User: Fold these one by one.
Assistant:
Number 1:
Amino acid sequence: MFENNRVKLGIAPIGWTNDDLPELGGEITFEQCISEMALSGFTGSEVGNKYPRDPEVLKKALHLRGLEIASAWFSAFLTSRPLEENIAAFKGHRDFLHEMGAKVIVVSEQGNSIQGQMETPLFEQKPVFTESEWELLVAGLHRLGDIAAEKGMKIVYHHHMGTGVQTTDEIDRLMAETDPGKVSLLYDTGHLVFSGEDPIHVLKKHMDRIHHVHLKDVRMETAYAVREQKMSFLQAVKNGVFTVPGDGVIDFKPVFEELDKAGYNGWFVVEAEQDPSMANPFEYAVKARRYIKEQSGL
């Protein structure tokens, strides 16, 4: 499975230090984070809030540990802020990632998002885009896709809990209304299962658009409690709704089989935001790496 080095395996720093909840892992240094990534057998990373933004400084630290940058998150506000404001911020982000050797840019629309609101119930108050907001989103993503292409890069859209593109229907609409040459898809197992979607259905339907993969597992008992107790997304994270592959309810074997059969070429990034005081990030990174090896041969 996954022959000829078609797939690279990375892990996100969010298990060590959380961008949305800085108090989680606040004491963990950048150096500890990337050293433990390398020690647990990964060769890539996404960019966290403690990473140096000077490309030469970051390159040196990563090179010492045999790591590359796979991508980094960009918060778009295409439905709520002027397009030119989005473009200006995006160009700086693109240029940084290009300098770091990344080929894809993770984009998620944060207009009306509730993912960063501590007290807002995740399922009861999920945002739904109006027709005019859909038009702004599609047109804006096309512009960002063109700007990424100037550097030979792609944007990969991150469907995400608490945003206007979370469900299967919303992903389907986004893919139907955007140009495949300008907008690709980030496939995230954990966000699909947490939302109540069928991850294999989404994978098969949009395989030709998927150019980046987040491997995230779900503790289903916590996911049920989030609905029942009307928790927010951040409360769900603090309560441990997400975990690494092999530690939750998702069977990743068919996910790997479908991606292999389709000839997927790109990054798999383990991403499981947890409280590091409850889930030791190095221990869970090792657990994820072993599970991926067992299930995929990588």
Note: The mean pLDDT is 97.
Number 2:
Amino acid sequence: MVRVKENLIENKKSPHQEGLHSAERVVSKHFSDMFNAYSKAINKAYNRTGSLFESPFKRLIVEDSAYFSRLVWYIHYNPQKHGFVKDFKDYPYSSYYSHISNKPTRLQREELLTWFGDANEYKYFHQLQHSENEFDKYIIEFD
């Protein structure tokens, strides 16, 4: 999940900021640059060529507070869902422990924990049994 700065969107809503300069295009361009840089680094590290991603980038705007809360859980739960680990808390690449840690991070930890109340409420929310069916309407599948 990525949060786009509101001032970026507001500044790009001008009628002069359309087409290639629209807010949506600027955000997509930043993601494209990031994915391309990542692909180049992986290709160089593993002496390979070609694309790492099969399909074009897709996204959904999160505008519902309940969906936001469950999406945080779903992102952490995903490695468990797909069988990488038995418990999502054991997945080494998760942001879950970064959120509840006191170590320095570039993540917006305090803002996220405050959303849930505090670190204890955040942990409690992750312990609840959520239904994957809550996400069916939000899942983006590629044909």
Note: Residues 23-45 form the longest helix (23 residues).
Number 3:
Amino acid sequence: MSINLRLRHPKGVSTVSVNPEAPITELQQIIFSNTEISPSHQELKTGYPPKPLTVEPQLPVSSLGLKNGDQLIVTASPASKATVTTSMANQASTAGRQTPNFSAPALEPRLDPRQEKPSDASVQTPDGTLVHRVVPDDNSCLFSSIGLIFEQDMNVVPRLRQVVVDAIRKDPDTYSDAFLGQPRDNYIKTISKPSSWGGAIELSIFSKYYATEISSFDVETGRCDRFGEGQYDNRVILLYSGIHYDAVSLTPVPDAPLDFHTTIFPVSSEAIMQGAAQMATKLRAKKAYTNTATFDLKCERCGKGLKGEKEARQHAAETGHAEFGEY
């Protein structure tokens, strides 16, 4: 029976399958086909924090101690980096000679994690540096943060909204009109829109969907809301500013590429929780939050002025309007 492994490498992220009883050479060839790093130059790490693996090519893959779903970090030894760079440059040159297909429909620009806004609220921990990952302020920040953390991709927002819709539809007992604060059909219609914010309901759904605790630190109060607390072995970290969610990741060294950041942590790591709390404190000192009880909003649909999140939610329940802007 094969196991699935998530490869993180200089060219991106890949998911591969391998038979644990196959020789490690087979895994090396699979890695080569995804990364173009030859087996003799592959450096493999896994675990938290990442630790190098001792590779004996003739032994079975099971000797590496890898389990289904584990992350395998692949880097090239210094001697091979020039070869990889040359190969990628050749690919780019070939791609540039392809004939454009003008009949294809225009695509919306994809969000690139490398275009995240910088933040100086990083925190040093015994395991590395916790980094504040600022996602776009576009009403989908919760979904973008979840996509960044679990999928390393902020372009999965439409699919993540559908995950929420499916969960609500499949469980009418849990997600009743009373629980949602409005008719189920209205909630489903609203949360499907790109302009609609997500919140606690969505975080509880994603915790179950990914079988991972989601710890959300409130910047203004320092409170940590934990979804799936005590149910799972791993957790992820979000920062909540009152009207915006951002992600948190861990980098082994300050200048490591984003592909090598860790976003899922064992619940046993108190250092990570302490570091996230310190990060929230740093942001609070900079007033990087909005008091949702008192801030002024305007309904973008009808123009009505509203005071705070409570009035906004009430207005949404009464009218179905879900697009709000801050005055």
Note: The domain at 113-290 is CATH 3.90.70.80 (Cathepsin B; Chain A).
